[in-house]
Amino acid sequence: MKIKHYEKYGAAIIELKGDLMGGPDAAELSSLLHKFLDEKKNHVVVDLSEVKFVNSSGIGILISGYTTMKNGDGNLKLANLSEKIKGVLAITKLNHIFDSYKTIDEAVKSF
Length: 111
Prior knowledge:
By secondary structure, this protein is of the alpha/beta class. Helix content is 41%, strand content 32%. The protein contains four helices and five strands. It has helices at residues 24-38, 56-71, 83-91, 104-109; strands at residues 2-8, 11-20, 43-54, 75-79, 100-101. It has a five-stranded mixed β-sheet with strand order 1-2-3-4-5.
């Protein structure tokens, strides 16, 4: 999986590309979120438009990211979820935990 990030309207946007399946990507994302918190960037949107598959470890990465931001007085929201990822979140009842939006702009405006 590849991770890119940029800022838009005061929020940090993280673009994930590839399959979200754990491994070293978890540490990279965690490090990035801690960096954002250290820089007082408390609003984060994770763009999942280029993620085609997510397994249980990938869900764990998202939960860990959510927890990291919440514990640092920040927010993490999801954008551009595929129907498959929406289904996984619904089955696991995580759709009640994560705020998700159709677009990055909608997610950013929700802060």
